[in-house]
Amino acid sequence: GAGVSQSPSNKVTEKGKDVELRCDPISGHTALYWYRQSLGQGLEFLIYFQGNSAPDKSGLPSDRFSAERTGGSVSTLTIQRTQQEDSAVYLCASSLDGTSGSRFFGPGTRLTVL
Amino acid sequence: KNEVEQSPQNLTAQEGEFITINCSYSVGISALHWLQQHPGGGIVSLFMLSSGKKKHGRLIATINIQEKHSSLHITASHPRDSAVYICAVTPPLSSYNNNDMRFGAGTRLTVKP
Q1: Which of A48, A91, A104 sits opposite B45 (nearest CB)?
Q2: What are the DSSP calls for chain B, one per residue?
Q3: Cis (ω within 30 of 0) for the bond into A8?
Q4: C-alpha to C-alpha distance for B48 and B35, rounded to whole angstroms
Q5: pLDDT attached to residue B40
Q6: Which of A21, A67, A82, B41 is 20 to 30 A (C-alpha) from B113?
Q7: Which of B19, B37, B38, B39 is nearest to B88 (CA)?
Q8: What average pLDDT does the segment B57-68 reach?
Q9: What is the mean pLDDT of residues B103-108?
């Protein structure tokens, strides 16, 4: 597609449920990033993929969070046993490679945990 | 202390005014980014720079590597420029977290007609 797409755009879930958030990067972009923006807070780095591998998982806030990327394209961020503090906008971005170039952001998924 | 500091936090201007947003950082970087986030939440990358100055339309971004400081200027501001402007840095490629983008808290700009 022309840009980074994310789905769903909005997700409301109950505390304790698992959720999956999807990111489709720009075709040909090898680097993919996940960020989180909590209400009234700044952006927070979660994880970075170069191809299918994730050399940097340092930003994942807990072991309830995991992410995978298959085929060097689509990525899924999974949050298990969601908590209310997980409520945030989850943003995905991609860039041509991991060493240079601007990042292109998706529209985000707004997650609300009740 | 945050590694990336922006000022001001909030800025209100009248249409047509020249606007400056400042960013200071305390870590080594490979590049500095200026991002724009509109009320709907979408983020657009405005500039990525590692030295000197870049211009795109009414937007100008400068960086002083020695002083670890960058500025974003908007000339002839317009209400449609109203958004949150975010400064972010990416660390040197040799560092452990080689793509961990560090973000400033953002500057909320409101341009009144």
Answers
A1: A104
A2: --SEEEE-SEEEEETT--EEEEEEE-S--SEEEEEEE-TT--EEEEEEESSEEEEETTEEEEEETTTTEEEEEESS--GGG-EEEEEEEE--TTSSSTT--EE---EEEEEE-
A3: yes
A4: 9
A5: 75
A6: B41
A7: B37
A8: 96
A9: 94
